[in-house]
Amino acid sequence: MIEALQFDFMQNALAAGLLASIICGVMGTLVVVNRIVFLSGGIAHAAYGGIGMAFYFQWPFLPATIAFSLAAAMIMAAVSHTAKHRADTIIGVIWAVGMAIGIILLDLTPGYNVDLMSYLFGSILTVPGSDLIIMSLVGLFITVLVFLYYPELLAMSYDEEFARIRGVHVKTLYFCLIGLLAITVVLVIRVVGLILVIALLTIPPFIVEKYARSLAQMMIFSSLLGSIFTLTGLGLSYQYNLTSGATIILVSGAAFIISLLIKKIVFKAKKGRII
Hints:
Layout: H1 8-33, H2 37-56, H3 61-82, H4 87-108, H5 116-121, H6 129-148, H7 150-158, H8 160-165, H9 170-192, H10 194-209, H11 215-240, H12 244-274
């Protein structure tokens, strides 16, 4: 892997992967503790509608996709906040319809053959410097916002009623969180793909959750763990000529399974000592 870093595309891929890991480590922690993993998956898939609109109507990619994703995300947020017993069904419908709209519009786009695989698994080896700048700015923006509103996010994530008593505008903060998640998904999906976004948002925080002593620790360790998965996946993909995004996902998935096995072994050991 070291010799590969002499190439500009590998340097950009490494930087993009690390930036995506940091962004997803912070946002993924909030996704996991607020139990909105399904909603984040819905936003990621619905973003396909914005991608299709951007290509079909020849609109700028980022504004069109972000606008569509934000609209879908706000509907999902409203449903999940006001009608929780029906949230999974409606989110599933928006998920499917958004993705279907995107695929149909891409099929109808004249004179342009869109590679859907690049949006599923990303094209991390072709990331330009301009995307790295955008990701850096977004990462800084998210970090600053989380730092400024950390007490409110902490209270809302673990006890909404307590947060309301403390004067936190839970509904407004929740909608802002979902909006920020939609923007994050769109920016990262362009680089690493839809499936890797979901993997980086959920797997590192899930593994870290039982070891971290605070929300801030969980964000930091999730970012570090995501970076390790990215570095390992990129190294293996370069060594064995594999698809980078899919390899990173498999590394993350293997770590997820190992963490479950370790948890099961530890639980059995404790149970045996009690008996």
